[in-house]
User: What shape does this take?
Amino acid sequence: MTLFITRVFTALTLVVSIGSHATEHVVRMLNLDGDQTMLFQPAFVNAKVGDTVRFEPTQTGHYVRALAVPDKATAWQSELDKPFTIKLEQEGLYFYMCPPHLMMGMVGLVQVGNAVNLDAVRKSMQSSKGRMYSNSARIDALLAQVK
Ligand SMILES: [Cu+2]
Assistant: This one.
């Protein structure tokens, strides 16, 4: 009986500890931050499988669409000016943009574990870079943060 109780307790502790180790990352959508315009802040997030990312419409006129995600993950799109949360269930890179402001370089990147889909994401990022009129250096800055 004591052994049984110990096992149940161990199982419960495991569930609680998994839950408490997931992190919620908050990414704000902004028109202006210092000398930067039309941006996700932070634009790069390093996360673990099971974490969530909440996109916060701190200023208006923005939403978020995934352009390249790991093979088994589902691409997402949020609604204009609405908070939006994604759960990161697959390892890899998630590249996303704000559609109305892609041409101004409003893009972001989430890394979950290893960058297993780096080649595909790099292609998508280079293609997006070609559509930007300003801030295209943000693409290189994001790629430089991939570990
Ligand atoms: Cu925007």
